TrEMBL record, chain A:
The chain crosses the membrane at residues 20-39. It comes from the Bacteria. This is Cytochrome C oxidase assembly protein. Keywords: Membrane, Transmembrane, Transmembrane helix.
From TrEMBL, chain B:
The lineage of its organism: Bacteria, Pseudomonadati, Pseudomonadota, Alphaproteobacteria, Rhodobacterales. HAMAP family: CyoE_CtaB. Carbon 2 of the heme B porphyrin ring is defined according to the Fischer nomenclature. The keyword Cell membrane applies. The gene is ctaB. It is an enzyme of class 2 (transferase). This is Protoheme IX farnesyltransferase. Pathway: Porphyrin-containing compound metabolism; heme O biosynthesis; heme O from protoheme: step 1/1. It comes from Sinisalibacter aestuarii.
Length: 59, 312
């Protein structure tokens, strides 16, 4: 019988790949949402500055 | 079988991350990413780099999700065909329920996130692409008509339109012609492959044109779509995203493609068998270069425009 007790079974490697993969996917998602928030809020700031400048120029 | 052997077999079938990733059809996803990126970059409106990267990623995830739903629905026929027997569901690594859950969850996530990142038009087009590929193509028409390749090709043709919509928020002649380019390219590409690869679609009761209408009819259809493709690709070159570089590329490639399709049309099955499908293989390889170089030429035109060159 080829059953052996091994400290590191192949199964553990597969489970590790699953956990690391899911972790990286979630981390990427968090970074993307953060990046999108910064980009969108930055865009709003620019629009506000432009609107303010236009209002000052018209006064 | 001993309990321990059964336990070991169950362990051997436990999925790794790569098995879940394979559900998303990474090779198809690479085409989606490339064409969507070109659609986004050639648009006349600039996009914040973070929004561009995020949008392309969500389009890729949406495309991958539709691939997972396709594997969920087609699990029965995937088990019957050699080409698909090593997919995660037929091998028992991933269950059909898991594939369905991943497909639905990623579809919803991709559409909602694309809506937040790029607006309603891009998100709506992505949602329609997923619906079209999963419901119209996979569930309804794939097993019903030998024109299944044409219908499936439409789903694969949407990404450049979505990329364009990310940048502009709308649809235009340019984006519709980019759609038409990939749409008309798909049938000659896949049918030339079907002419030299022994597939077992018949075992799975999927009507392929080579089986239902014969190989001569397939050769005629390849030429018909190749001619339609030439019209579409030249028309794209006359729009605002075309230019001399693109036009030179498209004229040369279309002449080669039409010459290849005519060559295939003149061949009999005996000719094809005699030289191990040399012309069909060459045409298939040319089709890969054809699409890549067309989108590449559009990118070149967009890059040249930044330096005041390119375009008409």
């Amino acid at each position: 019988m080829d059953t052996q007790i091994r400290a590191e079974h192949e199964l553990h490697r597969r489970r590790l790949s699953r956990n690391v993969g899911l972790g990286l996917a979630l981390l990427t998602f968090v970074v993307l949402v953060w990046g999108l928030t910064v980009a969108k809020v930055g865009g709003l700031d620019e629009a506000r500055i432009k609107a303010g400048a236009a209002a000052e120029a018209s006064q | 079988m001993t309990d321990i052997r059964a336990y070991e077999q169950a362990q051997e079938q436990e999925a790794g991350f790569g098995d879940y990733f394979a559900l998303l059809k990474p090779r198809v996803m690479s085409l989606v990413v490339f064409t969507a990126l070109v659609g986004l970059l050639v648009a006349p409106v600039g996009v914040h780099p973070v929004i561009a990267v995020a949008s392309i990623l969500f389009i890729a995830v949406g495309g991958g999700a539709s691939g997972a739903l396709n594997m969920w629905w087609d699990a029965d026929i995937d088990r019957l065909m050699r080409r698909t027997q090593k997919r995660p569901i037929p091998t028992g690594k991933v269950t059909e329920g898991e594939a369905f859950a991943i497909g639905i969850a990623l579809s919803v996530m991709a559409v909602v996130m694309l809506f937040l990142a790029a607006g309603a038009m891009a998100a709506g087009l992505l949602a329609f692409t997923i619906f079209f590929y999963v419901v119209i193509y996979t569930m309804w028409l794939k097993r019903l008509t030998p024109q299944n390749i044409v219908i499936g090709g439409a789903a694969g043709a949407f990404p450049p339109m979505i990329g364009w919509a990310v940048a502009t928020g709308g649809i235009s002649l340019e984006s519709v012609l980019m759609f038409a380019l990939t749409f008309a390219w798909t049938p000659p590409h896949f049918w030339s492959l079907a002419l030299f690869v022994k597939n077992d679609y018949a075992n799975a009761h999927v009507p392929m044109l080579t089986v239902t209408h014969g190989r001569d009819a397939t050769r005629r259809q390849i030429l018909a779509y190749t001619l339609a493709l030439a019209v579409v690709s030249v028309a794209l070159g006359l729009t605002s995203i075309g230019g001399p570089v693109y036009m030179a590329v498209t004229v040369v490639l279309n002449l080669l493609f039409i010459k290849g399709a005519l060559g295939i049309l003149r061949r009999s099955d005996a000719d094809s068998e005699a030289d191990s499908h040399l012309a069909e293989r060459a045409f298939f390889k040319l089709s890969l270069a054809y699409l890549f170089l067309h989108y590449g030429a559009l990118l070149v035109e967009a890059t040249l425009k930044h330096w005041g060159l390119g375009g008409w």
